[in-house]
């Protein structure tokens, strides 16, 4: 074996070795005539065909003096799998901690959202018992009913969300006439608008992608999602139009609800489908659960969901559903062609 000064010279002066932590540690061990252990290093290994693979290693060196010659026995342990497992455990821990924080935030929000309408119901019920003015009684009754409806909606939303997250939500698949369903929803919400201050200011327009279209899905859940989208569009549109429609795209239907409202800031789009996120933070009505529930329903039905928006120009909430969940690709294609 070459003498130590020669080894040290090579370790110091070889360009690609100067910055190598393994070589530096080995050199120091030689100089101090000591062993070393637990040196962690990432090593690139060349395989056949000029392929490379990266390994996580733990390296130890044992200094030996044999027959007057200095030796360093290097042991390399491949800990790639261990490191990968540690990283997976770290990610799992972070997810668990995040879930706990989300759970705490959920309970805090739920407590606040439930307390607000209950306080209103209790307070105005007490006031109602003391007033004799019929006009005031009517006003207080309307406030009590509005908060009772909000409380019922909140309870239903929480139950739906719990079922979605637990995977226990039930779906009943039937063939649905999409054109008829959208026409019915347009008529329903146009009538609701007629009883508000936005009467004659907002027009709901249906845009039917096919002359006739049947889709096999859960009708009640489909209505729930579309109604949620339409209600939000009405809430945040002062005047103009709301377009509800669908388009046939390959093996799925693309549903959308577009409005000419105020739009949503880009920095809020990424979390718009999270629990208790409201489109307008100052909005008192609503639970902030509707879009989260809609996302859960669409995902369970095998579709995708999203939103596009521009400040001052309006928003488009959309989702997709498979044309025929139980059909193969050929059957889906024929299913679609039959209505063109």
Automatic annotation (TrEMBL):
The enzyme class is transferase
User: GO CC annotations?
Assistant: plasma membrane
UniProt entry tagged with the keyword Nucleotide-binding = yes
Q: State the InterPro entries in the record.
A: HATPase_C_sf (IPR036890), HATPase_dom (IPR003594), His_kinase_dom (IPR005467), HisK_dim/P_dom (IPR003661), HisK_dim/P_sf (IPR036097), Sensor_HK_Regulatory (IPR050736), Sig_transdc_His_kin-like_C (IPR004358)
> Which Pfam families does the UniProt entry name for this protein?
HATPase_c (PF02518), HisKA (PF00512)
Q: What is its EC number?
A: 2.7.13.3
- Reactions performed catalytically: ATP + protein L-histidine = ADP + protein N-phospho-L-histidine
Q: Which residues form the Histidine kinase domain?
A: 109-325
Q: What is this protein called?
A: histidine kinase
Q: Name one GO molecular function term.
A: phosphorelay sensor kinase activity
Which keywords, in A-to-Z order, does the entry hold?
A: ATP-binding, Cell membrane, Kinase, Membrane, Nucleotide-binding, Phosphoprotein, Transferase, Two-component regulatory system
Per UniProt, subcellular location reads as: Cell membrane
Give the organism, scientific name. Answer: Bacteroides pyogenes JCM 6292
Spell out the PROSITE patterns in the cross-references. Answer: HIS_KIN
């Amino acid at each position: 074996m070459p003498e130590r000064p020669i080894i040290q010279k090579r370790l110091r002066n070889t360009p690609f070795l100067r910055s190598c932590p393994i070589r530096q540690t080995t050199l120091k061990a030689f100089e101090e005539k000591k062993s070393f252990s637990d040196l962690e290093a990432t090593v690139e290994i060349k395989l056949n065909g000029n392929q490379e693979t990266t390994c996580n290693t733990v390296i130890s060196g044992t200094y030996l003096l044999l027959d007057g010659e200095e030796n360093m026995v290097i042991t390399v342990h491949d800990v790639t799998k261990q490191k990968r497992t540690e990283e997976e455990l770290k990610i799992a821990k972070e997810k668990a901690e995040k879930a706990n924080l989300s759970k705490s935030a959920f309970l805090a929000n739920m407590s606040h959202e439930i307390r607000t309408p209950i306080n209103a119901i209790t307070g105005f019920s007490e006031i109602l018992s003391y007033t004799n003015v019929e006009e005031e009684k009517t006003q207080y009754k309307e406030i009590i009913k509005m908060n009772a409806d909000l409380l019922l909606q909140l309870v239903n939303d929480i139950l739906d969300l719990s079922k979605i997250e637990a995977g226990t939500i039930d779906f009943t698949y039937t063939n649905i006439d999409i054109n008829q369903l959208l026409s019915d929803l347009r008529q329903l919400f146009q009538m609701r608008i007629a009883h508000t201050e936005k009467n004659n200011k907002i027009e709901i327009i249906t845009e039917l992608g096919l002359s006739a279209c049947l889709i096999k899905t859960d009708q009640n859940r489909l209505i729930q999602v579309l109604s949620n989208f339409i209600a939000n569009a009405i809430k945040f549109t002062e005047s103009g139009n709301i377009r509800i429609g669908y388009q046939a795209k390959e093996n799925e239907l693309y549903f959308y609800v577009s409005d000419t409202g105020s739009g949503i800031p880009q920095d809020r789009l990424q979390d718009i489908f999270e629990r208790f996120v409201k489109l307008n933070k100052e909005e008192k009505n609503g639970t902030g659960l509707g879009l989260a529930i809609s996302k859960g329903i669409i995902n369970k039905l095998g579709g995708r969901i999203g939103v596009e928006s521009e400040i001052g120009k309006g928003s488009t909430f959309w989702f997709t559903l498979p044309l025929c969940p139980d059909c193969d690709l050929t059957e889906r294609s024929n299913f679609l062609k039959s209505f063109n």
